[in-house]
Write a structure and sequence with these properties.
Blueprint: E1 3-8, H1 11-29, E2 33-37, H2 48-59, E3 64-71, H3 84-88, H4 94-111, E4 119-120, E5 123-124, H5 136-142, H6 146-157, H7 173-183, H8 190-201, H9 203-209, H10 211-225
Parallel strand pairs: 1-2, 1-3, 3-4, 3-5
Helix pairs in contact: 1-8, 5-8, 6-7, 9-10
């Protein structure tokens, strides 16, 4: 049975996915996925030149499946991801853009002599907080103010699925949560609020409502079982 390792941006993703996603994959495959943050980060994405050595080291182990979980929203030009211009400047379609960046990661590894047979690049569209809009029950559980809950539900209901909540400095999923809470004198704390909401929703509901996230998880399961 192969092992799996997922590099994420920060501690929130480590906490949430270790308690939510890892048990689900263990149940499906018998294998445990280890989630760790990028080594050279204080939280958030860093230049790909810093991520490359970490991926190279993990991929030396031919029995290990290596994947990523990075936020599309947070990747900027200065991070040096291959295909950035094509992904975020030349196209207005984020679904195309996110795939270009994922392919760019694989291409960069190959160009640097790293085998990618066991590599599954994944970038979340648009960011971790999109998953929190998979169900109303997470917001119902975490927040007491009915006005906050009502406004968060309205955001969710305006989009076909949570991953369609748009990529914009003012309207990305996390910004919507932050802005709504601040207008009512409250703050969104990603490490505590994000984890509590995610755990209340549950992995099955996230997979059901977020097609790209679902595809990534199932690709990982298939690769582990192969």
């Amino acid at each position: 049975m192969k092992r799996a390792h997922c590099i994420v941006e920060g501690q929130t993703e480590v906490q949430v996915f270790s308690s939510l996603l890892a048990p689900y994959i263990l149940e499906q495959t018998g294998a445990y996925v280890l989630f760790t943050p990028i080594k050279h980060t204080g939280g958030g994405i860093v230049k790909f030149t810093k991520i490359l050595p970490e991926l190279r080291e993990h991929l030396k182990d031919r029995e290990k499946i290596v994947t990523t979980y990075f936020d599309y929203y947070g990747i900027h030009k200065n991070h040096g991801f291959k295909n950035y211009e094509a992904a975020k400047v030349d196209t207005n379609n984020p679904l195309i853009g996110v795939e270009l960046l994922e392919n760019g990661m694989t291409e960069t590894l190959q160009e640097n002599g790293v085998g990618t047979k066991n590599f599954i690049p994944y970038i979340q569209l648009h960011e971790f907080e999109a998953l929190l809009f998979s169900s109303d029950k997470g917001f119902d559980f975490q927040f007491d103010n009915p006005l906050i809950i009502s406004k968060l539900k309205k955001v969710r209901n305006r989009f076909p699925n949570p991953e369609d909540i748009n990529d914009n400095p003012q309207t990305a999923p996390s910004k919507r949560i932050i802005n709504i809470l601040e207008k009512h004198g409250e703050k969104y704390v990603k490490t505590s609020d994000g984890e509590s909401i995610a755990l209340e929703i549950g992995i099955e509901e996230m997979l059901n409502k977020c097609p790209r996230f679902n595809h990534w998880v199932n690709s990982l399961i298939t690769k582990i079982k192969a």
